[in-house]
């Protein structure tokens, strides 16, 4: 029998193969695809979003979890596409990242979750001008246009798109905006109809804008195993198991847990800049290609508390990182 809590945990840990297999198993067992998606995938991803917000997870871990979600969604996709006859669509969503901006991981995640919530999603990709948004809107007649921007230099273009639609007399569509530098205040300033901080909030917003309400039970995030908050201090003789996360050959993050239950995770800031550069040089800037380069190294063990071991490994790795 399908264990959704375990599936959520696998998704959280980015175990794509396990998530894919459990999705297949759940369907084979006769579970409805909507249930599998809500309870197995979206619920898991909501926890990832929450933990990202509270700095428990870093960006690479979000990307790895998103990859696992995508593996599960790929299994459900044919069923999602075939459901038109028996499920009323909630609305039509046109999604794109604005001109000058190539970031699409967050947008893709939002699109995936919106599709799961019952929207017809048309994703026009990155670097989209107002003309392209308009041409696409003519084609698909969206109820909502969702724009994404990750750069402070491109977020202002969202206003250009909104103004463009307004001067063309196209006031029949609602605008939702999002991306790391966006805020509710900015959304208000540029005349957007709403802002969503993460994929789950984005779906709530889309549902609100299209007049549909979210089922509370379906959107409630399950809790993940309690971590280090109340763990006792490490004693002498404590050992820590740790793993290093790599983007190709570049170490980007270390996560360790000692036998007293303390968990510590740090990013290697210099490596992030190096990854940006290498991604561009190696032609791996596209969302899927970029995310696919992340892999966890083998689990290792050392004497010491999680904080001490992770700090020691960080310092060793930093010395080995050039550029
Ligand atoms: C991955 C990444 C890249 C990848 C992008 C791969 C891809 N295909 O997307 C690569 C390496 C290509 C890249 C390139 C660059 N990047 Co970059 N990048 C990042 C990084 C590390 C993570 C972004 C990400 O994917 N986050 C995870 C997703 C899940 O979160 P998210 O995008 O915020 O999306 C969520 C919400 O915002 C919301 N949301 C998103 N869209 C929408 C839309 C709607 C409608 C709604 C409602 C909600 C919503 O829901 C999402 C899911 O929860 C950020 C740092 C950071 N911490 O954000 C820098 C960052 C965004 N990049 C930055 C920079 C400067 C660049 C470059 C200029 C670097 C360079 N030297 O070349 C280029 C620019 C290229 C370009 N023209 O766009 C800066 C931006 C600084 C700024 N304030 O402007 C950042 C903040 C890093 C930094 N601290 O300096 N980058």
From TrEMBL:
InterPro entries per record: Cbl-bd_cap, Cobalamin-bd, Cobalamin-bd_sf, Met_Synthase/Corrinoid, Meth_synthase_dom
Single GO BP term: homocysteine metabolic process
One term under GO cellular component: cytosol
Entry keyword annotation includes Metal-binding: yes
GO MF entries: cobalamin binding; metal ion binding; methionine synthase activity
Domain B12-binding, residue spans: 90-220
Keywords, ordered alphabetically: Cobalt, Metal-binding, Plasmid
All copies of domain B12-binding N-terminal, residue ranges: 1-88
Transmembrane segments: none
Gene3D superfamilies in the cross-refs: Cobalamin-binding domain (3.40.50.280), Methionine synthase domain (1.10.1240.10)
Record SUPFAM superfamilies: Cobalamin (vitamin B12)-binding domain, Methionine synthase domain
Annotated family: Belongs to the methylamine corrinoid protein family.
Protein name per the record: Cobalamin B12-binding domain protein
Organism of provenance: Gemmatirosa kalamazoonensis
Biological classification of the source: Bacteria, Pseudomonadati, Gemmatimonadota, Gemmatimonadia, Gemmatimonadales
């Amino acid at each position: 029998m399908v264990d959704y809590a375990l599936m959520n945990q696998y998704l959280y840990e980015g175990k794509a193969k396990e998530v894919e297999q459990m999705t297949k198993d759940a369907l084979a067992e006769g579970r409805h695809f909507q249930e599998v998606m809500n309870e197995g995938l979206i619920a898991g991803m909501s926890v990832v979003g929450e933990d990202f917000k509270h700095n428990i997870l870093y960006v690479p871990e979000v990307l790895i979890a998103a990859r696992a979600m995508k593996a599960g969604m790929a299994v459900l996709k044919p069923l999602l596409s075939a459901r038109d006859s028996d499920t009323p669509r909630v609305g039509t969503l046109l999604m794109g990242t604005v001109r000058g901006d190539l970031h699409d991981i967050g947008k893709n995640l939002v699109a995936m979750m919106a599709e799961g919530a019952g929207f017809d999603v048309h994703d026009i990709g990155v670097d989209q001008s107002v003309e392209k948004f308009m041409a696409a809107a003519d084609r698909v007649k969206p109820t909502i246009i969702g724009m994404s921007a990750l750069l402070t230099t491109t977020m202002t273009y969202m206003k250009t798109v909104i103004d463009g639609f307004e001067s063309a007399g196209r006031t029949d569509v609602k605008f939702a905006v999002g991306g790391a530098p966006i805020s509710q205040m900015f959304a208000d300033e540029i005349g957007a109809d709403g802002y969503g901080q993460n994929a789950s909030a984005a779906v709530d917003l889309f549902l609100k804008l299209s007049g549909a309400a979210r089922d509370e039970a379906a959107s409630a995030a399950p809790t993940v195993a309690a971590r280090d908050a109340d763990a006792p201090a490490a004693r002498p003789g404590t050992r820590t198991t740790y793993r290093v996360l790599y983007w190709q050959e570049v170490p980007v993050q270390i996560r360790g847990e000692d036998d007293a239950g303390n968990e510590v995770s740090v990013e290697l800031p210099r490596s992030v800049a190096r990854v940006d550069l290498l991604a561009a040089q190696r032609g791996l800037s596209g969302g899927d290609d970029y995310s696919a380069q992340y892999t966890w190294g083998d689990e290792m063990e050392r004497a010491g508390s999680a904080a001490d071991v992770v700090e020691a490994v960080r310092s060793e790795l930093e010395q080995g990182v050039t550029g």
